[in-house]
Design goal:
elongated; alpha+beta
Length: 354
């Protein structure tokens, strides 16, 4: 942060005033570094009370050096501004006391944010979706497509000292390469580390599994319950973790169990990949249990789907959906699988056809 420039603009604002471009520059600095807003408000209030020409008593360089030394050494001797002391009325004494207090507060603020080893607190940014798919470009250039009912969060300094994202739901990442700052995606207990690649993560809270599908590059996958064990993935591989704990783990509540590492097979007709076709507003199923298909359709159409029997829940569904509404989608799937359905106030009930 250009502290000298920020100090200069603040001092000039309350002394001789700023030009239009200078005021725009100051506004931009204040918007980027919100800790400075508090200082600006203090100076504004002091001006309202009649404090003018704040830099008359001490120039910028001397005041900043003096204030920093006072904070570091915690000295208590009287302040010498290098000016003859003259009697002042009580009102003037009060005003100058405010001036000194403002400069000490300003100096402490500058010293605090510029002192090595004491970075300002990081506030998380957050991007969320409800019923729509969202495309986002992160500060480091990483491209993200968030599926419906999904959310990511990341820190304000993302891409500078670290690249860490927390995901709930489903997202496709095309990661900007940065070998010195790897990107880490945390999807519940599953952690994915990557330098630069493209992959998909599905980690909805309601799902029983967490899936990671690698499209390009390579990634390392681990779980919080067993951080020492990592799985290196190659392109067109998919790994699935079950949220149910492994039976032989000591930390059963914390550690998900590994289910399988499988190959991703692009569709022969159009080379599309089922795991990421949702980014193109499509749903594709290949011999997938109807229960799993129903979870995807619930998020896709914003409805609740129940099953009246185990047989319908375990039906294997193959098909694709794109622009169909809910009724059209169910009718199309009926042509491929033997089931019936009813819709009542936004709730779909599926039953196996006898």
């Amino acid at each position: 942060m250009p502290l000298a420039r920020l100090w200069e603009l603040l001092a000039r604002k309350y002394n001789d005033g700023l030009s239009g471009p200078e005021q725009e520059e100051l506004d931009q600095l204040l918007s980027e570094h919100r800790d400075a807003l508090e200082l600006n408000e203090i100076l504004t209030r002091s001006e309202d009370l009649g404090v003018k020409k704040l830099t008359t008593a001490m120039d910028e360089a001397r005041s900043r050096e003096w204030i920093a030394s006072r904070i570091e050494k915690k000295e208590t001797e009287p302040v010498d501004f290098g000016m003859p002391v003259r009697p002042l009325y009580k009102r003037q004494g009060f005003v100058w006391a405010m001036v000194i207090g403002i400069f000490i507060g300003a100096g402490f603020w500058l010293y605090r944010i510029s002192r090595p080893g004491t970075p300002p607190a990081e506030k998380p940014n957050q991007v969320a979706t409800s019923l729509s798919k969202t495309r986002i470009t992160l500060p480091d250039g990483t491209f993200v497509v968030l599926n419906k009912n999904s959310q990511i969060s990341y820190n304000r300094d993302f891409g500078v000292r670290q690249r860490e994202i927390t995901l709930t739901g489903e997202a496709y990442f095309d990661v900007a390469r940065n070998e010195s700052v790897p990107l880490v995606v945390k999807a519940g207990p599953v952690h994915i580390t990557v330098l630069g690649t493209a992959f998909n993560v599905r980690a909805y809270a309601a799902d029983s599994t967490i899936e990671t599908s690698l499209i390009r590059g390579s990634i390392e996958v681990s779980s919080s319950g067993d951080p020492g064990r990592t799985i290196l993935m190659r392109p067109y591989e998919k790994i699935v973790f079950s949220k149910a704990p492994a039976a032989n783990t000591r930390k059963a509540k914390e550690e998900p169990s590994f289910v399988m590492l499988d190959r991703i097979k692009p569709n022969t007709a159009d080379s599309s990949i089922n795991e990421i076709v949702w980014t193109q507003d499509r749903l594709v199923f290949q011999k997938e249990p109807f229960q799993s298909v129903a979870w995807k359709m619930e998020r896709w159409y914003g409805v609740k789907i129940n099953f009246s029997d185990t047989g319908s829940r375990n039906l294997l569904i193959t098909g694709s959906l794109e622009k169909e509404n809910l009724a059209e989608a169910l009718n199309a799937l009926q042509q491929l699988s033997p089931f019936d359905y009813t819709v009542d106030r936004g709730v779909v009930t599926i039953s196996k056809r006898h």
